[in-house]
Amino acid sequence: MNPEISGKFPPAKLAAMCAHFTAKSSTPWLIDSGATSHITNDISNIQSPTPYHGEDKVYIGDGKGLSIAHTGTSTLHTPASSFQLHNVLHVPHMKHSLLSAYQFIKDNDCSLTLDIHGSSVKDRFTGRTLLRGPVRGGFFPLQGSSSSKAPTSSTALVSSSTNVRIWHSRLGHPSSVIFRKVLSTNKVDVQGRSSPDFFCKDCALAKNHKLPFGTTQSASSTSLELLHCDVWGPSPVVSVSGYRYYLLIVDDYSKYSWYFPLKSKSAVFSTFVEFKSYVENTIGNKIKVVRSDSGGEFTSHQFQHFLKLHGILQQFSCPHTPEQNGCVERKPPFG
């Protein structure tokens, strides 16, 4: 038990925190898809049993007929709900109590599923699970109390107010809107400050999609050693001259920037060719590395062939990782 989630441990004299059922738990019922009636060997499982004077018998696998002593109805009580059992036969010499699958789903208007993991009883209309049972040795037992009265319980619970952060953790870190609704609807006793609007470190960490990126350790030693390139657009407003896209180029060494307005992305290649001739002739250095994202304008055969022809290394940032080319990704297109 985690005290951060469940609150403080109660003292030893208040250790009885769970409901204690006083009714004696009966032997389990074995689900039988071939039985037409419920059969029990314990008469206490039947409410107001009626003596049976007929000649019908219950025939088992070896062909032997077992006499029926009483008939009646019963109720199978479980912690979650209760199930009605009609047409229950009391057969004293039966070794186990059998639960007729057909009669059970007919009496309770529910669905019953059997698989390798056990049995499952669900509400036929809502699909809510009402009862689950295990599988043991090829049998599907259902445990419950079949006494004529529902089991009584005596409960000793510890009631204490808990602060809002623990309630937030107990409820699975819901959003502030849902958390506020749960607190108000259920009148939860909250200790101290009851406002659900507080900073939760666990929620913030869970909503992060990636770890933060550290500061890069690489640095260029000369101009044009590394150029960061990116295309911004389409612009929501077309310029007077009809430009919708903008090619951004940033020199990693000097952080000097160039902006080139474009009418379409297809003009990126021709613009870069003209830029290369101009900047290399002006500065006197050669472009060595070009870094960009994997946009089609940079991955085209024409663009890549041009870079290889002039001995320029091309680098791509990883998909959905603009931080690797943040020098140009962070730069606003008009500032």
TrEMBL record:
<dbReference type="GO" id="GO:0003676">
    <property type="term" value="F:nucleic acid binding"/>
</dbReference>
<dbReference type="Pfam" id="PF22936">
    <property type="entry name" value="Pol_BBD"/>
</dbReference>
<dbReference type="GO" id="GO:0006508">
    <property type="term" value="P:proteolysis"/>
</dbReference>
<dbReference type="GO" id="GO:0008233">
    <property type="term" value="F:peptidase activity"/>
</dbReference>
<dbReference type="InterPro" id="IPR039537">
    <property type="entry name" value="Retrotran_Ty1/copia-like"/>
</dbReference>
<keyword id="KW-0378">Hydrolase</keyword>
<dbReference type="GO" id="GO:0015074">
    <property type="term" value="P:DNA integration"/>
</dbReference>
<dbReference type="InterPro" id="IPR025724">
    <property type="entry name" value="GAG-pre-integrase_dom"/>
</dbReference>
<dbReference type="InterPro" id="IPR054722">
    <property type="entry name" value="PolX-like_BBD"/>
</dbReference>
<dbReference type="InterPro" id="IPR001584">
    <property type="entry name" value="Integrase_cat-core"/>
</dbReference>
<dbReference type="InterPro" id="IPR012337">
    <property type="entry name" value="RNaseH-like_sf"/>
</dbReference>
<feature type="domain" description="Integrase catalytic">
    <location>
        <begin position="208"/>
        <end position="335"/>
    </location>
</feature>
<keyword id="KW-0645">Protease</keyword>
<dbReference type="Pfam" id="PF00665">
    <property type="entry name" value="rve"/>
</dbReference>
<protein>
    <recommendedName>
        <fullName>Integrase catalytic domain-containing protein</fullName>
    </recommendedName>
</protein>
<dbReference type="InterPro" id="IPR036397">
    <property type="entry name" value="RNaseH_sf"/>
</dbReference>
<dbReference type="Pfam" id="PF13976">
    <property type="entry name" value="gag_pre-integrs"/>
</dbReference>
